[in-house]
Amino acid sequence: MTQVSPRSTAEPAERRRSAFFRSPVLLWCAFVATHLVLGLLNSYGGGYPLGDMSVYKFWVDQAVMSDFWVGIDAPWVYPILAIVPMFIARLAYPVAATIPAFATSTLDVGLYSASWLSLVLVLDLVAFGVLTGWGRRPDRVAVGWWWVLFLLMLGPIAVGRIDSVTVPIAVIGVSLVATRPVVATVVFTVAAWIKVWPGALVIALLTVSRIRSPILLAGAATSAAIVALALSFGSGANVFSFVTQQTSRGLQVEAPITTFWMWAAASDPATTTIYFDTDILTWQVRGPGVEVASAMMTPVLLLAVVAVVLVGLLARMRGASAGALLPALSLALITTMIAFQKVGSPQFVSWLAVPVILGLISHRAGVAASFRTPAVLVLAIAALTQLVYPYLYGFVLGLNPIMLTVLSIRNGMLFVLLGVAIAALLASAEGAHSIGGDIHARRILGSSQRG
């Protein structure tokens, strides 16, 4: 009688499970289901995660009803294009008003929030389609599953802020960067005029690419067109007001730099306190040294970004391939923008998905080292961030020692991630990748590229 080994019977089962998770249909269903879950958590979960929707709605209502546009008629905390998705979300109002099921009284923040979540779903679906080749890229199925898991780990904040518009746009950009770097630059620049952070991707691309002039020209021309459009509507200097509006802010409670004052507030509430800033609508700290630290953080952030760029340039000069360097440099720059921020809003963690996706697809293309460690670290950071906000945010504000420990670990892990990214930059300069990979990287980011 023929003996069948346990291993021989297990292998077909493993292959069936592997084939099951490689199914594009399953992946797309999981992606949509994840957004439905996040939508329900935003609408019915604890902690009021859609709190910013009332502000978005106010700005748009003000524009429509009073012809007063933030960023045009007054300074604004966001770049000028941020008003576009906010306005698009309001376009559901006339449609909803024609549906008998919707009474006039329901046309409020609740409807606006539903419209916003629908907009984010559409944008994410388009980005997901571009990333996975609309189901025709089996090599990117695992990357798609990572994005699904990341969204679940980060929770409702992943789709409930203006950042959730820029992330899918940036994902489209990184999906194009290997074949059309100039087009990718335009995409990144447009996203940066919604929220600044995608500008780091332009900086990274300029640092590693051999076609810097076309990339610089594409970014400058796109920015000039946006500024010219705003000026034509009479914005004046308000089109640049988001720069000064951010630099004048205090230390937000979640920011890594604020960790010291959060523990100080817990141990000595007489000297260090938490307060709600009614102008910026965020919780900040007040205490000894806060004003000095707040004033220093913007130049420190700029210096940190310059230092990371110099490391990237050094690695490039020492022979690191563009394909190996770009994901690590993008991750290092974006992590720097979060770790050295004095704002530290929880939705900033959503930015990290983009360089990780770039690193994963670059590794699968054979032009970069494994990105498994950053991918796992970012998932852990996202999960800790969801603990901090929105569900248990009240305990953070209440200076609960356990939640302060969670926040401290999360903030510390950002610097661990930055260290991993810097190490990857240095490793890429030590010849860790094959000559073939370097030739391929020169081809995909070099002078032979189409715009």
Q: Which SSEs are present, and which pair or pack?
A:
Layout: H1 6-21, H2 24-44, H3 53-66, H4 83-90, H5 92-97, H6 109-132, H7 141-154, H8 163-176, H9 181-192, H10 199-208, H11 212-232, H12 241-247, H13 259-267, E1 273-277, E2 282-286, H14 290-317, H15 322-339, H16 353-364, H17 372-391, H18 393-397, H19 401-428, H20 435-445
Helix pairs in contact: 2-6, 2-7, 3-4, 4-6, 6-8, 7-16, 7-17, 8-9, 8-16, 9-10, 9-11, 10-11, 10-14, 10-15, 13-19, 14-15, 14-19, 15-16, 15-19, 16-17, 17-19
Written account of the structure:
- This protein is mainly alpha-helical and 451 residues long.
- Helix content is 66%, strand content 2%.
- The chain has helices at residues 6-21, 24-44, 53-66, 83-90, 92-97, 109-132, 141-154, 163-176, 181-192, 199-208, 212-232, 241-247, 259-267, 290-317, 322-339, 353-364, 372-391, 393-397, 401-428, 435-445; strands at 273-277, 282-286.
- A hairpin with a 4-residue loop joins strand 1 and strand 2.
- It starts with 5 loop residues before the first helix and ends in a 6-residue tail after the last helix.
Structure summarized in a few sentences:
The chain is built from 20 helices and 2 strands. By secondary structure, it is mainly α.
